[in-house]
Amino acid sequence: MDSVLNLLKIDLGISHNLRDAFFIQLLKGSVLEIELKGITLDLNQADDQMLLSDYAAWCYRKRQEDVPLANNIQARIRNRIIKERIAKQNALFEI
Predict the structure, then answer these.
(1) Nearest-5° Cα angle at 23, 20 to 25
(2) Which end of the chain is more exposed for a tag (fewer CB within 10 A), N or C?
(3) 8 Å CB contact between 77 and 51
(4) Which residues are within 8 A (CB) of 31 and not within 5 positions of it... i.e. 6 or more apart?
(5) What distance, in Å, lies between the first and last C-alpha atoms of the chain?
(6) What is the pLDDT of residues 48-62, one digit of tens each?
(7) pLDDT of residue 88
(8) Buried b vs exposed e over 15-32: b needs ≥16 C-beta within 10 Å?
(9) 33, 59, 86, 92, 95 from 8: Cα distances, Å
């Protein structure tokens, strides 16, 4: 989670540690929100780290606005859902 925290802070342009407790909770909440969409994140994978960081950064920036999720993040989530479903189907057929 430290690497994702660092990615988030770089994205937001923050170099100090004063908000780390908040950002860690934001990342944990973002993991839960993404998993509710049907995705199992593997935070050892760079693409999942970036997805989580970008999602959390978007949530942080837009927390006081009522706007839909950014199109690029929506597309990445859809692609990730499809990728996971295909992997599950392939696993069923291998048995």
Answers:
(1) 110
(2) C
(3) yes
(4) 41, 52
(5) 34
(6) 999 999 999 999 999
(7) 84
(8) eeeeeeeebeebbeebbe
(9) 17, 11, 29, 36, 40
* Length of the chain, in residues: 95
DSSP H/E element including 25: helix 20-36
Token pair, residue 19, equals 């908000």
Tell me what pLDDT residue 66 has: 86
CA distance 80 to 14: 28
pTM of the complete model beyond 0.70: yes
Look up residue 86 and give its amino acid.
Answer: I
Q: Which residue has the tokens 């499809």?
A: 82
| Residue 80 to residue 93: CA distance in whole angstroms | 20
